[in-house]
Specification:
Layout (H helix, E strand, L loop, with lengths): L17 H10 L1 E4 L5 H17 L9 E5 L5 H7 L2 H11 L3 E11 L13 H4 L4 E7 L10 E3 L11 E2 L8 E2 L2 H4 L5 E3 L6 E5 L4 E3 L8 E10 L13 E4 L6
Antiparallel strand pairs: 1-9, 2-3, 3-11, 3-12, 4-9, 4-11, 5-8, 5-10, 6-7
């Protein structure tokens, strides 16, 4: 068991280049290596795992658990407000940054299926959001790393509603995916993928049974009015919000 004492990065150490910012706007996503150091990411996984164990939710068939801004543990709360995260979001969104929620998504020998192809925006609608997919384990094509369709944030895809144990019940059909480019994103523990809520994404199935935990935190540009009804609480991290 590694030390799960909170050790947030105190100063901003990561500044995106203009090319990285342009890449985010072109592709709808951006991989940022070492957003968190390995030890911090591993400790975060242990905190989330312990919380799910307490709630008896480690066997949740979907492998997903969401926390709103007012129900996070202390470690998670500090991690989603990390100064590097806020600084990068300011570069991508502008000066007004608001945190909305965070979720754990876990795959292992019991939860082996891929997260199906979808655009997050369909789940919440309203203003566009940005999420950060944070690797709490090394993620590979064999244990369920993320996949993205670059440039897909420019289009709203048709979604079919499917009810099964995989969660993510609004999905893009296989026909709609035909011929689209797919980027597969293996990452190391602590790396992160920033992505637009219209970026079409899924994850690979877990075929080797090795644990693959991720934390996914979601934010919005607080200067934009948001008609979404998903969030009753939010946390302004910089600037001001028109939504509170
Ligand atoms: O981590 C995964 O398997 C994918 C999660 C995902 O697509 C999402 O939360 O929107």
């Amino acid at each position: 068991m590694s030390n799960s004492t909170l050790n947030p990065t105190q100063t901003v150490k990561i500044v995106l280049t203009d090319a990285q910012v342009a890449q985010y706007h072109r592709d709808g996503y951006l991989v940022v290596p070492n957003l968190y150091d390995e030890q911090t990411a591993l400790a975060w996984k242990e905190v989330l795992k312990a919380r799910l164990a307490e709630e008896n939710k480690l066997n949740e068939p979907s492998g997903v658990r969401v926390w709103m801004a007012d129900s996070m543990d202390e470690y998670t709360s500090a991690s989603v407000q990390d100064p590097n995260v806020v600084a990068i979001l300011q570069q991508l969104l502008g000066p007004n940054v608001e945190f909305l929620s965070v979720k754990a998504v876990f795959k292992n020998a019991q939860t082996t299926f891929n997260s199906p192809w979808h655009q997050d925006w369909f789940y919440w609608q309203g203003s566009n959001k940005i999420s950060i997919w944070i690797a709490l384990d090394d993620a590979t094509p064999e244990n369920g790393c993320l996949r993205m369709v670059p440039g897909s944030q420019a289009k709203v895809f048709d979604m079919a509603t499917v009810e099964d144990a995989k969660g993510f019940n609004r999905r893009v059909t296989d026909e709609a995916l035909q011929g689209l480019p797919i980027d597969t994103l293996p990452v190391h523990r602590g790396d992160a993928v920033f992505f637009h809520d219209l970026a079409l994404h899924s994850s690979c199935p877990n075929t080797n049974g090795k644990e693959r935990w991720s934390a996914i935190s979601t934010y919005r540009d607080a200067s934009q009015a948001d008609s979404s009804t998903v969030w009753d609480t939010a946390m302004v991290l910089s600037g001001e919000s028109v939504n509170v």
